[in-house]
Amino acid sequence: MDAELLKGLNAARRNRQAAVLVTDLATGEGRLVMKGDVAPSDPVLAEAVAKAFVTGKSGVVEAGESRLFLNVHLPAPRMVIIGAVHISQALAPMAAMTGFDVRLIDPRTAFATEERFAGIDLRAEWPEEALADRPIDAYTALVAVTHDPKIDDWPLVSALKAGAFYVGALGSRKTHARRVERLTEAGLSAEQIGRIAAPIGLDIGAQSPQEIAVAILAQAVAALRKPADAAGA
Fold this sequence. Notes:
Mean pLDDT: 92
Order of helices and strands: HEEHEEEHEEHEHEHHHH
Strand order of the largest sheet: 7-6-5-8-9
Number of helices: 9
Helix content: 40-55%
CATH architecture of the largest domain: 3-Layer(aba) Sandwich
Low-confidence stretches: none
CATH class of the largest domain: Alpha Beta
Radius of gyration: 20 Å
Shape: elongated
Strand content: 15-25%
C-alpha cells in the first residue's frame, strides 16, 4: 500500500473515522474516501461507497470500465448507557453480545455495583469524568435512562453535539417536554433536540425492563444500519 494512503488510514483509525480504501484491481492504484467527503463522480461507485459506510462490508464493484475493490474500515460501534437501572441490567449484556463496546455510567454507587453488572465496563462516576478518556463520537449510541437531569443532560448534550448515531432518553412526554426546555436553554437547536428518541425504543408495546431493553437495542441497531430510515422516523 502507498505510504501516504497507509498514513491516512491509520489516522482515520486513531480518530475513529470511517474510511473506504478504493483500489483499482487492474492498476493497483488506490485512494481513500472518508465519510463526509464529496461523493465519487461515478454514480455506481458513489452508491457502492455509501452502502459500504452503512454495512461495513468490503467487496468488488464494477464502475464503468474499472473493477474496484472497496476495503471498508469502520470504527467499532459503542454504546454508552447512563443509568444503572433494571433496563440497563438487560440492555448492557444484550448490546455487548450484539457487538457494541458497552460502557455503563452512574455516579450513584448504590446502583452501580459489580454484583448487578458483572462483566460490564462500569463507571461509578459522573458522566463528565467517566467519558473523559473516550468522548462520545459519531459511532456512539447514547442511552440515558436515569430520569435525573443532573446525570442525563450532560451526556445528552455531548452526544447531540458530537453527532452520535443514536441518542435515546427514557421518560414520559411531559418529562421530555421539560428536557427539551433545558436543552434549548443549553444552546441546542430544535433540529439537534429532534434527534432524541423519546419515548425511547421501538414501539413494540414493551412492558417489562427486559422488553424495553429489546426495544432500545433494536432502535439503536436500526439507527446504525439503516440511518436513512431512522432519520425519517
